[in-house]
TrEMBL record:
Protein name as catalogued: ABC transporter ATP-binding protein
Domain ABC transporter: 10-239
Pfam families (alphabetical): ABC_tran
Superkingdom, natural source: Bacteria
Alphabetical list of PANTHER family matching this protein: ABC TRANSPORTER G FAMILY MEMBER 20 ISOFORM X1, ATP-BINDING CASSETTE, SUB-FAMILY H, MEMBER 1
Family: Belongs to the ABC transporter superfamily.
Keywords for this protein: ATP-binding, Nucleotide-binding
SUPFAM superfamilies according to UniProt: P-loop containing nucleoside triphosphate hydrolases
GO terms, molecular function: ATP binding
């Protein structure tokens, strides 16, 4: 099971999850290669968590097929759970147990023998700066400390594939940056990772991403490739009346989106317009603008063009 000579760790075809008449995931196709961080990017309600829960075997698909690490899901879900790690969106360990007690309990659940259990607990406590906190009750830890404990628990049994559901939503920026360095260390050690996020900067860190909206995949690929294939030119405007300019441009032919970022208005212009700067300078709304210049696309521009207002 390879693609471009790389092993496939997840393959899903036509994946659907219905709750009564609501399709939380609607026809999702995925091919995820070993040795990468693959991200699901999308707002709340886009189907990210539902997709993760089907890939881990916790939810049964309504339609479609899923294969994870060569195992058919949900048929082989019991076998799969010893090969994967799963860090949930909300802290799910025991607040009235210490760090050491939580790790020991979960190592037992994973079936680690006494010698291996002791070895792995010592390794993850050292790696994730938990040794000095081993007697701290989990419920008394800070958000960043709980995050490190949750990650340590998820990798105790050295899983081949790690699932992380919005793992940094409750921590500060410094903890987020450190957390992502830990993820790249895991990948270097041979772990493949699937992560959900609604942070654009985190999505740009992934090797590949899928942009989800309303349960459907709107785009996928490497962030750099998606930005290169944007289908729009990005122009920023500096002027005194940015709110008026935005209102005037939205809905105009050739304008895909416009959003204010600080003292500038960021405008997405269809890429079939040869000179987007001249195009905007000719607009009466931009009369008096001090700066109109083309800039580099970012992942948020890709997200806008692939979803919501950019597709209307």
């Amino acid at each position: 099971m390879t693609a471009n000579n790389r092993e496939i760790v997840v393959r899903a075809e036509g994946l659907v999850k219905k709750f009564n008449d609501f399709r939380a995931v609607d026809g999702l196709d995925l091919t995820i290669e070993r040795g990468m961080i693959y991200g699901f990017l999308g707002p709340n309600g886009s189907g990210k968590t539902t997709a993760i829960r089907m890939l881990t075997g916790l939810l049964t698909p309504s339609e479609g097929t899923v294969e994870v690490l060569g195992l058919a899901i949900p048929k082989d879900a019991e076998t799969l759970k010893y090969k994967i790690g799963y860090m949930t969106q909300t802290f799910s360990l025991y607040g009235d147990l210490t760090v050491l007690e939580n790790l020991d309990f979960m190592a037992t659940i994973y079936g680690l023998g006494r010698k291996k259990r002791k070895q792995r607990i010592a390794e993850v406590m050292e790696r994730y700066q938990l040794s000095d906190l081993k007697n701290r009750f989990a419920g008394k830890m800070s958000g960043g400390q709980r995050q490190r404990l949750a990650l340590a628990t998820a990798v105790l049994h050295e899983p081949q594939l790690l699932f992380l559901d919005e793992p940094t939503s409750a921590v500060d920026p410094e903890s987020r940056r450190h957390f992502w360095e830990e993820l790249f260390d895991l990948v270097e050690g041979g772990t493949s990772i699937i992560v959900t996020t609604h942070f654009m900067d985190e999505a740009e860190r992934c090797h590949k991403i899928a942009i989800l909206e309303a349960g459907q995949k709107r785009a996928d690929g490497a962030p750099k490739e998606l930005m290169a294939a944007l289908g729009a030119n990005v122009v920023e405007i500096e002027a005194r009346n940015l709110r008026d300019i935005r209102r005037g441009l939205l809905g105009s032919d050739g304008i895909m989106a416009a959003a204010q970022l600080g003292a500038r208005l960021r405008v997405l212009v269809r890429d079939d317009i040869a000179d987007p700067e001249a195009f905007l300078k000719d607009k009466p709304e931009t009369d008096g603008a001090s700066v109109i210049e083309r800039v580099r696309p970012n992942l948020e521009d890709v997200f806008v063009t692939a979803t919501g207002e950019g597709r209307q």
